[in-house]
Amino acid sequence: MNFQIRQAIASNVTGDSATEFRDTVEDAISRGDEHLLPGLGVFLEKWWNSSTPDEQQQFTEKLSQAFQN
């Protein structure tokens, strides 16, 4: 992913509340538009880099389970 895309996405959500982030994520998922995937990827990258190893492990386990269905 191009760094400029990361920077643009970050600047668009800087200062957003938890509720605003939830609304953004839910809107992106409900729309199902593939052009919104880079934004969700940036969110995941930021979360991953600020998470503990235990949180990362829980996430990857849950993700693995979600793709078992």
Automatic annotation (TrEMBL):
Taxonomically, which superkingdom? Bacteria
UniProt KW Ribonucleoprotein keyword: no
Recount the UniProt induction comment for this entry. Expressed only in the forespore compartment of sporulating cells.
Entry annotated with the keyword Cell division = no
Q: Which GO terms describe its biological process?
A: asexual sporulation; sporulation resulting in formation of a cellular spore
Annotated coiled-coil positions are: none
Q: What is this protein called?
A: Small, acid-soluble spore protein I
Native organism: Ureibacillus chungkukjangi
